[in-house]
Specification:
The chain is 39% helix and 25% strand. It is an alpha+beta fold. The protein has a single domain, classed as GIY-YIG endonuclease (3-Layer(aba) Sandwich), CATH 3.40.1440.
């Protein structure tokens, strides 16, 4: 079964900051981010996908994206993917 909803984390290769999002087509969304079609990240290109989770329920995916944008969610995500963040040079603050 293919799960249709994706929550993802991108990292800007320009400033190393993270961006959280939600989509039903991760390949198209990544292309949109890297061609400047997404205003919020257009000045932070190029971006690379460093994490994603797939969900069957749209509500679950949207709730997860919203959680990742909270202080507690950012902290939890950084703990879960700490080795990835180290490998991609994310600044340890």
């Amino acid at each position: 079964m293919i799960l249709p909803y994706c929550v993802y984390v991108l990292q800007s290769e320009k400033d190393l900051l993270l961006y959280h999002g939600f989509t039903t087509n991760i390949e198209k969304r990544l292309k949109d981010h890297n061609t400047g079609k997404t205003i919020s990240t257009s000045k932070r290109m190029p971006l690379r996908l460093i994490f994603c989770e797939f969900y069957l329920s749209k509500k679950d995916a949207m709730r997860r994206e919203k959680y990742f944008k909270t202080t507690q969610g950012k902290r939890m995500l950084k703990l879960c993917i700490r080795n990835t963040l180290a490998a991609v040079g994310y600044p340890n603050k």
